[in-house]
């Protein structure tokens, strides 16, 4: 199924205004309109942007740009209307090209390129998500730690039931919290009744596919949380003392949480078609909630 299927037929005036004011998205509309139909590789080269940025913005404009049977990008009826308005006003701009430094910084701190394969291929999503989960579980068990949302804690001895319960809660809470806050922060929430109507009108198959992709992305985003358990495993195997210093250990915990927050933010932005500022708010909401739940649940079992 194409990622452009199952979209609402109309956009609000606010959403249209936001789209055409964004330089990259404006450049994409102009480029596709000028070519008529164009493949992803040619479009990326024409704009001079990264693959992650291209697919992220294309998902944002799923109601303006679609794909033909040969996977070339073409403008929809609304896209053609906007293209004519832009060209009639001679408002076209040169495709923005970031400097190599800016592109590198963007790729590191907001790595949409990491999640674009998940949303472009079901096979990648079905393999990468479980593989990331397997790596995380293996490292955590070998390092005698358990993951509870965005907290990592020692588990000596390892209680496999408690480990599975914490991990299951982490994934369930992650999916629910990220879905809820992304919808709440998106500005599309008007009332509980309107939200219920959107759920009723959504396609079950499309919703399940999107949920699976979000969980797969979430698995990838949690990989940095295996940093401390991995070093703990190294400590035990090679008789080192990397984590014996509390300051070093706490610093590594903060580092792993920070990396996961940035990855979660990129995953949410790509999955929910959100600006990075909003998606960062969603990731931080999950981070603070994880600490709140961990605090009130003490003493830990």
What does this protein structure show overall?
The structure is a single chain. The protein has 2 domains: 13-99, Arc Repressor Mutant, subunit A (Orthogonal Bundle), CATH 1.10.10; 110-296, no CATH class. The protein has 14 helices and 4 strands. Helix content is 67%, strand content 5%. The protein has a two-stranded antiparallel ribbon with strand order 1-2. The protein has a two-stranded antiparallel sheet with strand order 3-4. The chain has 301 residues and is mostly helical. Mean pLDDT is 82; it is low at 1-9 and 90-95. InterPro entries: WH-like_DNA-bd_sf, WH_DNA-bd_sf. The chain crosses the membrane at residues 123-143, 163-186, 207-231, 251-271. Keywords: Membrane, Transmembrane, Transmembrane helix.
Short description:
With 301 residues, the chain is mainly alpha-helical. It has two domains: 13-99, Arc Repressor Mutant, subunit A (Orthogonal Bundle); 110-296, no CATH class. The chain is built from 14 helices and four strands.
Q: Report the order of strands and helices.
A: HHHHEEHHHHEEHHHHHH
C-alpha Rg, in Å? 22 Å
Strand order, sheet with most strands: 1-2
Low-confidence stretches: 1-9, 90-95
Tell me the strand percentage band.
under 5%
Give the termini distance in whole angstroms: 44 Å
Largest sheet report: 2 strands, antiparallel
| Annotation, overall tally of beta strands | 4
Q: How would the global form be characterised?
A: elongated
What percent of the residues sit in helical stretches (DSSP H or I)? 55-70%
Tally of separate helices: 14
Count of domains: 2
SS class: mainly alpha
Q: pLDDT average, as an integer?
A: 82
């Amino acid at each position: 199924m194409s990622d452009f299927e199952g979209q609402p037929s109309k956009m609000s005036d606010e959403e249209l205004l936001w789209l055409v004011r964004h330089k990259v998205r404006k450049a994409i509309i102009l480029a596709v309109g000028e070519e008529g139909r164009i493949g992803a590789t040619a479009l990326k080269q024409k704009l001079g942007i990264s693959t992650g940025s291209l697919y992220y913005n294309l998902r944002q404009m799923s109601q303006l740009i679609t794909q033909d049977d040969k996977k070339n990008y073409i403008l929809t009826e609304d896209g053609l209307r906007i293209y004519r308005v832009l060209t009639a006003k001679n408002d076209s701009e040169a495709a923005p090209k970031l400097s190599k430094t800016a592109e590198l910084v963007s790729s590191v701190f907001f790595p949409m390129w990491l999640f674009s394969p998940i949303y472009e291929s079901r096979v990648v999503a079905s393999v990468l998500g479980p593989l990331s989960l397997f790596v995380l579980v293996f490292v955590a068990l070998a390092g005698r730690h358990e993951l509870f949302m965005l907290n990592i804690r020692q588990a000596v001895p390892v209680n496999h039931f408690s480990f599975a319960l914490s991990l299951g809660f982490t994934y369930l809470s992650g999916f629910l919290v990220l879905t809820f806050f992304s919808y709440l922060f998106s500005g599309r929430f008007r009332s509980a009744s309107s939200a219920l109507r959107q759920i009723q009108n959504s396609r079950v198959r499309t919703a399940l596919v999107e949920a699976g992709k979000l969980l797969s992305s979430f698995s990838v985003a949690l990989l940095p949380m295996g940093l401390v358990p991995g070093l703990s495993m190294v400590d035990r195997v090679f008789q080192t003392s990397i984590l014996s210093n509390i300051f070093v250990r706490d610093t590594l915990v903060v580092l792993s949480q920070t990396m996961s927050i940035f990855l979660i933010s990129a995953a949410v932005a790509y999955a929910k078609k959100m600006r990075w500022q909003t998606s960062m708010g969603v990731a931080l909401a999950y981070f603070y909630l994880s600490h709140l739940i961990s605090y009130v649940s003490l003493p830990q079992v």
